[in-house]
# Entry
Amino acid sequence: MEIRTVGEVTGEANKGQADVADGLRFERRNTRIGADPLDGVEYELRDSVITNPDGSVVFELRGAEIPKNWSQLATDIAVSKYFRKAGIHGDAKKGETSARQLVYRIAHSVREAGEQQGGYFASREDADTFEDELAYLLITQRAAFNSPVWFNLGLYQRYGIEGQGGNWTFDQERDELIETRNAYENPQCSACFIQSVDDDLMSIYDLLKTEARLF
# Structure
């Protein structure tokens, strides 16, 4: 996937022009128009069972739909850590059961955020290309996000899962920081934060609370 700004694409012909459209253009390298990249992968049903040293089961999900070329370790990590286990569309017993669901949740939600926040894509076709190429990279394990993306992104947008509020986000219309009403409408997708602590007991406890909410 090659990423170029509209100015780079139009290049020499538009030098000096101030009215070049905003947004990024994307060229297809691994996908085709009209073909779902998630359909181009061969899948199989696998069990993911994680046990303690004594053999007791910590986690178990049987019959997960996983790409055939994924290792069992990759399967166990995705299924046990990143699959949403419950709450899809309000059903306390319904969770993700396929790598296709997981990758679509991430790729489509990133694309959707780019469209909603404005200016990221030069056209609808570029947004389509971006989503397809990203889905291909993820399902074929050529790239991977850090854990908070897999944990949090798309749960509200795809499944209506809210979670507790109390985090902060930037309100573009009001041009200010606001406290979120739920955890997943504006999800935390970053992993690394540097916190400060003063040399007193209450500051130490405040740090513990903040660290627990972040991680």
The CA atoms of residues 137 and 188 lie 22 Å apart. Residues 9-20 have pLDDT under 50 and may be disordered. The first strand starts at residue 2 and ends at 5. The helical segments are 6-10, 72-82, 99-117, 124-139, 147-152, 155-159, 201-214.
